[in-house]
Amino acid sequence: MKEIEINGIKETIIERSDFPIEECKNILRDEVTAILGYGPQGRGQGLNMRDQGFNVILGLRKGRSWDKAVSEGWIVGKTLFETEEAAQRGSIIQFLLSDAGQIAAWPGIKENLNDGDALYFSHGFGIVFHKDTKIIPPEYTDVILVAPKGSGLTVRTHFQAGRGINSSFAIHQDYTGRARERCISTAFAIGSGHLFETTFENEVHSDLTGERCVLMGLLQGAFLAQYEVLRENGHSPSEAYNETIEEALQSLYPLVSEKGMDWMYANCSTTAQRGALDWAPRFRDAIKPVVEECYQSVLDGKEARISIESNSQSDYREKLEIELEEVNNQEMWKAGHVLRKLRPENL
Ligand SMILES: NC(=O)c1ccc[n+]([C@@H]2O[C@H](COP(=O)([O-])OP(=O)(O)OC[C@H]3O[C@@H](n4cnc5c(N)ncnc54)[C@H](OP(=O)(O)O)[C@@H]3O)[C@@H](O)[C@H]2O)c1
pLDDT value at position 346? Predict the structure, then answer.
């Protein structure tokens, strides 16, 4: 465990060395982990557990995920079962269907939970918004959360590269008295880097805000605003794209990731530094009210209701594809298609 202090606020970080993988295996020696769902998280977490030698099975419905799992070595009747059968066989049930899929599948899963099972989530959504999702676990189960702070794809690729995505963890219900050790051992079994503790509420509120704002929504909105202004003022597509996206993602953001914002500023021209230092507070002032509005919308459950309603529609995927195609067809991303191919490594 490492005690860290940031601006006087103390936190405890749990590192891999605190729970070596052999100790995690010992803690989970009598458990069968059933991973329900084979989207980015189910796949990444499942393959990492399998590679580390944990006792893991998958629970899927027949179709796309099932076929992919078979092609990746999961064996029907041995490590691959239909969703409810896997829930019955497992003692730790990793509920990794899409958040809308969890609502649809919950009644069948609930019926198959046994005394002392642990119900595991990678997002607080189903539990926190239970008035809408109706996901209320029986009192004879542990309810735990491990939420990797990255896409499921990187949960897998970082693990394969010998690294790990950091995860938050939370205990919502401790029926067995073992919820914490089950949760932390599973977090390292799926290949997490380090762990920090949260609650289901804080996980879902920060996660929904993050993806709507800086991580995804604001990113696209800010890129587009700058690209449009440059184009409307006569700049060519390649100039607008390079100044907006290519330079950000290929050059400056990796520097921020490596050593921080001040270091990136310090490694840019004095002209750039002056302008960025002057304009950053104006953007903070302009954007903060929007982030605040978004956070309140998350907090009062409106964002959850919007996504449940939209994601539960039977033609959700078709409608999503149309919306994503509209993004793809924006001139900014058409420029991206052309210009990415011209990177030296792609020639
Ligand atoms: N994606 C991320 O980066 C990320 C990061 C952190 C946490 N999480 C959380 O992890 C969980 C899983 O997310 P994900 O992105 O990996 O998965 P996802 O892509 O949202 O879900 C895909 C899986 O759900 C299955 N599914 C959907 N509806 C179903 C139903 N009615 N019955 C049975 N199976 C159904 C799909 O099966 P089919 O192929 O058969 O349709 C597929 O295996 C979510 O709670 C999410 O919030 C995700």
Answer: 83
Q: How far is CA 322 from CA 82, 183, 334, in A?
A: 31, 39, 16
Query: Hey, which of 47, 74, 96 would you mutate to test ligand 1's pocket, going by the most ligand atoms within 8 Å of its Cβ?
Result: 96
**Closest residue CA from atom 3 of ligand 1:** 151
| Strand order across the beta sheet in which 118-121 lies | 2-6, 9-14, 195-197, 167-173, 142-148, 118-121, 92-95, 33-36, 56-60, 80-82
Under CATH, domain 2-198 is a member of which superfamily? Answer: NAD(P)-binding Rossmann-like Domain (3.40.50.720)
**CA dist., res. 170 & res. 30, Å (int):** 22
Give 345's pLDDT tier (boundaries 50, 70, 90). Answer: confident
Rounded Cα distance, 242 and 220, in Å:
15
Do residues 330 and 336 make contact, with C-beta atoms less than 8 angstroms apart?
no
Pairing of strands 92-95, 80-82: unpaired
Q: Is 123 annotated in the active site?
A: yes
Instruction: Output the CA 37–ligand 1 centroid distance in Å.
Output: 6
Place of tokens 């401790």: 174
Residues 6 or more apart whose CB falls under 8 angstroms from that of 23 comprise 185
Beta bridge partners of 144: 120, 171
Encoding tokens for residue 96?
């990794």
Ligand 1, atom 11, lies closest to the CA of: 96
Res 347: pLDDT? 78
> What's the mean pLDDT in 26-41?
97
In this structure, which amino acid lies at residue 179?
A
* Cα 105 to ligand 1 centre (Å): 12
Ligand 1 pocket: which residues have CB below 6 Å?
37-42, 60-61, 63-65, 83, 96-99, 101, 104-105, 122-123, 147-148, 151-152
In the chain, where the domains are located: 2-198, 211-346
Please spell the DSSP secondary structure of 242-282, one letter per residue.
IIIIIHIIIIIHHHHHHH-HHHHHHTS-HHHHHHHHHHHHH
pLDDT tens per residue across span 320-340: 999 999 999 999 999 999 999
Nearest to 45 by CA among 204, 199, 138, 159: 159
